[in-house]
Amino acid sequence: MYLLKNNKLVGNVKKHRFVRFLLVGVLNTIFGYFLYGTLILIGLDYKLAVLLATILGVLFNFQTTGRLVLGLS
Q1: The pLDDT value given to residue 16
Q2: What is the per-residue DSSP string for 15-62?
Q3: CB 57 within 8 A of CB 31
Q4: Whole-angstrom distance, CA of residue 54 vs CA of residue 65
Q5: What is the C-alpha to C-alpha distance for residues 65 and 72, in angstroms, rounded to an integer?
Q6: Which of 66, 67, 65, 73 is nearest to 25 (CA)?
Q7: How many CA atoms lie within 13 A of 48 on its CB side?
Q8: Confidence class of residue 70 from pLDDT cuts 50, 70 and 90?
Q9: What letter does residue 68 receive in the DSSP assignment?
Q10: Cβ(35)–Cβ(56) under 8 Å?
Q11: Torsion of Cα atoms, 44 then 47 then 53 then 59, to 10°
């Protein structure tokens, strides 16, 4: 934890909202593909998998953007 608090890169990321926005976008993309792939692997029809992955992805995106980019709690 000490390394994260005193790391210059982490400090720069915390200062720049655009960088946080990009990182959250990457995180949300990974989450969405992972969720869709998992739903397909457990045997859901692709239409239902897309629907559920989209709905859950939007909710996840809303939460992560609000908390990590905008600093809302």
Answers
A1: 76
A2: H-HHHHHHHHHHHHHHHHHHHHHHHHHTT--HHHHHHHHHHHHHHHHH
A3: yes
A4: 16
A5: 9
A6: 65
A7: 8
A8: confident
A9: I
A10: yes
A11: -130
- What angle, rounded to 10 degrees, do the helices at 8-15 and 17-41 form? 100
Tokens found for residue 33: 């593909």
Read off the DSSP letter of residue 73.
Answer: -
3-49 pLDDT, tens digit per residue, is 555 666 656 656 677 888 899 999 999 999 999 999 999 999 999 99
The residue type found at 67 is R
Pairwise CA distance, residues 4 & 34, whole Å:
27
As given in the structure block, the two tokens for residue 45 are 């029809």
